[in-house]
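Illustration: C4-dicarboxylate ABC transporter.
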Amino acid sequence: MTEPSEGIPREGISPMKRSVAYLPITLFSVVMGLSGLAIAWQKCFPGSSVAHALSLSIGLFASVLFIILLGMYGWKTLRHTDEVRTELHHPVRLNFFPTISVNMLLLSVFWQSTSMLAITLWTAGMLLQLVLTIYVMSSWLNHSHFSIEHVNPSWFIPMVGNIVVPINGIFLGYEEISWFFFSVGLLFWLVLLVIVMYRLLFHEQLPLRLLPTYFILLAPPSVGFISYSGLIGGLDNGARLLYYCALFWAMLLGCNAIRFWRVPFVLSSWAFSFPLAALSIATIKMAELSQQPCLSWLARLLVILLSVIVSWLVFRTIQAAMKGKVCTPELK
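Result:
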């Protein structure tokens, strides 16, 4: 598998060109992690003024960062079309294009109280998610260069985006559209789960830099629980199945924490953030619906853990950017 390189600049490439032409689409996963953290603080401590201020600060930062990245990637698309085309054919980076639409959907949840902004973000995110899902799946079906070794948990991202749509779609009153996206996301999550597990169990291990993507396994059942419980307006056995599936994945990944701790920081390390945020928010909602005090405490612990991890990721990302290790050409 051809892997992105960080900090291996090619001779003859100016820093300015490298900062634009090689701006990775994977940077949008940073906004996903920050948005998830903002929503988690918003939902976990609704009566706390400190939590509200913290949530608002993180949400504002995520929103501004998203606008900046969107503008920079738009400029890259206009000025460096070949580099964008390369990412669109990359077996890993292709799956990160839907993070743009997922970010719109997450920010619409965060800005839910601002109705016009929430509707605008949700509508744009929903339409873009549909387009990108069809594009990515068409690429999978009509490929000529993918193999089983290219499959990894990041392939879930295009499907997870569909499951995010109902979270705010139900709140805004778009029930049938929400069920459509939930159905598509759930069906292809199950299909991809079989393929990804087959690859992970019976083929060579993922490259070291892709090990953090294991955490993406948490996202579909966590987000699925949030969306499904919203669609049915409560808690049933289907919702329990989704939540406890996510909780089991968290236990399994937690038992392998030392393995993940030893992975050097790379941009894919942001894969730790949003899935854990999704589990935190799912646990908050499960605690409310089931009235289990132990789940309320678990939710608080998860949000605190998430905050520590995101703080570390922000620090390491800034550190890598200052050393010129983020916007670099791909190693061939």
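Reading the tokens back as a structure: The CA atoms of residues 37 and 307 lie 7 Å apart.
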